[in-house]
Specification:
Helix content is about 0%, strand content about 65%. The chain is mainly beta. It has a single domain, classed as Beta Barrel (Thrombin, subunit H). The protein has a six-stranded antiparallel beta barrel. The termini are far apart.
Length: about 120
């Protein structure tokens, strides 16, 4: 089965891939902050959802599939040290990366499963 070719026009959202880094707080200590490592166009679709009870409140979780084309400028090691910030559209917000797979094909792309914060 041939994998689907993804056209650049399908990537309607802008995603910033942010890495957690340690920076000086100016008072002699350190603090964790997020630094944008790369910006890329992406496609986002919700793939599953669930509800649970947390501290007597109903909490919903949704898993999103985020597709990003792989190129020479974008080749991060995507793991738990990264998060994704989508800057535009109805899916704007922060996402925690759960899994990231590099899919080979005519144009390789990353298929990322992420939870919304």
């Amino acid at each position: 089965m041939k994998k689907k070719f993804r056209y650049y026009g399908e990537f309607k959202h802008t995603a910033e891939f942010q890495k957690q880094s340690r920076t000086s707080d100016g008072a002699g200590g350190w603090t964790n902050s997020w630094v944008t490592a790369e910006t890329a166009r992406c496609e986002i679709t919700p793939i599953s959802g669930s509800q649970g009870l947390e501290m007597s409140q109903i909490v919903g979780n949704t898993v999103y599939k985020i597709i990003v084309r792989q190129n020479s400028n974008f080749n991060p090691m995507l793991d738990n040290d990264y998060r994704i910030y989508v800057t535009n559209g109805i899916y704007a917000g922060y996402y925690n990366i759960h899994t990231a797979l590099l899919i080979d094909g005519d144009v390789p792309y990353y298929e990322i499963n992420a939870y919304r914060k």
